[in-house]
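COURSE: Structural Biology Practicum
ASSIGNMENT: Worksheet 4, Part C
STUDENT ID: 0417
INSTRUCTIONS: Below are two proteins. For each, the amino acid sequence is given first, followed by its structure token string. Answer the questions at the end about the second protein only.

PROTEIN I
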Amino acid sequence: GDSAAAFSTWESGIRNDPENIGLRVAMIGALRKKGKIDEAIVASKEALKVNAKSIAVYNNFGLAYLDKGNIVLAKFIFQKAIQEIDGAEQNALLQSNLGWTFYRDDNLPAATEHLKKALELDPNLVPALVYLARVYMDDHNYGDTVPLLENAARLDPNNADIQLTLGVAYRGSGRLDDAKRAYERALALEPSDPSPHLNLGVLLGDYRKDYDGAVNEFNQYIAAGGKEKVLAETYIKAVKKEKEDSQKRVAAEAERKAKEEER
């Protein structure tokens, strides 16, 4: 957690061993993680001056542009690496990153092609598993989504985002108990992220008809500072109305039966 000391160490290492690509790649990745995207791009360009054939540098370079929202340049960087570096086409991570870039560009056929290629090269590459699952989810193809995410969760069991997405896939497949467990697992792994509360509210309200439980989850989501506050409030109103309508239907049915028995 001491980023200042980490960057100081990398910079010292690079000064003493400027051709050490491992040090440069580590620093570029850390710059991206800290949100210093422009600095990561500059560091990537400097690294390529040292070694223009480094696939690891190209991967981070393209991801930096993707972080910046520049899909065109990200795609150019990944494709340039594949075209110009021997063996780069067989790099699973490079294929995965290019596939995700095509997904971000709404080119789902190309995204699918490259993500499948990535998994052929490395069946246990977690990013490729998650990205291809996203492609399938957009098409409501939960049958193919679930196995991918289950494998990703097995390989990276402490990843809250994977558990949350897996919960959505389970819900789409009708596996409601599994969905609930996945959402709860996501909350346990990342208590500061209230997103599972929103999903639990939908699950309980729309699928389980547990109206009070759903409202409780939505309120927890709002109290925790969830970004979709307006959406959660809309759900609360809808759930409360559905509860009232349900109670009226139950009362009307009871009254009908009572009159029938009296007759």
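PROTEIN II
(use this one for the questions)
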Amino acid sequence: MTKVCMITTNHSPFDSRVFYKEAKSLKKAGYDITVIGHTNSKLEKEVDDIKIVGIEKKVEIKSYLSLLEKLLKEALKINADIYHCHEPESFLVAIYLKIFKRKKIVYDVHEYYIDVLPLSSLQRKLFLGFMLYLVEPLFCRYTDAIITADEGIAKRYKKFNKKVYPIFNFPSFEVFKPSNNQDMKMKYKDYFVIMYVGGMSEERGILELIKAVHKVSRTYPLVKLLLLGNFGTQDFEERCIEYVRSNDLTESVEFLGFVPHTEIPKYTDAADVGAVLLHPTTQFMKTAYPIKLFEYMICGKTVIASNLPAMGKIVKEVECGVLVNPTDIDEIAEAIIYLIKHQEEAKKMGENGRRAVEEKYNWDKMEEKLLKLYRRLK
């Protein structure tokens, strides 16, 4: 049995792409899978016949060497045939295993890291700069395969290696199926519910969404915004919470924090609309295929989405929602009001989205590509 070890420093071992899609797909196909990931404390257990190793991560730059040493130690202990790494830090470990242990390695690039560079802390900026401009271009040439989360990212890596395979982060039917959670539906039955799920930061349009809901609530007091996810910075969290508090929006806006991937469908079932309001940053203009868009669609929910090139094209073609300027609060509010007033049309948009995911934008399609790639690596 071929042994595969997935290594990640910035993601939980139970990350939706890492565990619920790639690891589970490979396990189902008969591979022996171990996932090494970032946890709050050291962890070793088995979940769904997949071995999990959690390594506590520190954020200081001086602790990166210690982190890489721990990752390497655990990776060597597993002695896998293929090492599948998920970001620049874990790529360093994989490079060592390639050069000194002759192991096969897969580099899975989730983001266009060069565009993330300006948003990073100084310490991470120095590290990423070193990796992305010096180390990565060199060693990508010797990587057995590079997986990217979309075509935009793939363009950069095809300069270094011809074996680049875009495998989109589409939702899995196994996880995203109707929850039939009546308690959640009853809790929000009197409200028109808008939801957002994912990391919460300024460039993801969270504050604009809150302000738009505030504006809508003056006319439609039973509008409700559910925010599922952690804030990226304490400063932005404080700004959002202060806006809600000072404008008496505690009945209209709920901060639910991090919700496990398997629990998200029960909130989606209770929602009427899913919001994905990424700002037109360089990063999102190139690579805007957010998983939350397809998760809303697979659950048959209408979307309010940014009018960015990639995402806008999908929403227009599928006719699954309303496109807005994500920085224009009035436009977002108008979109919400339109969907409140035209709920039959909104329902049809949701059905269009669900159908599109069933036919095209689903993990089953991507699983075929992943398994085909792994068969080539054997």
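ANSWER KEY EXCERPT:
Q1: The radius of gyration is 21 Å.
Q2: The chain has a mean pLDDT of 91.
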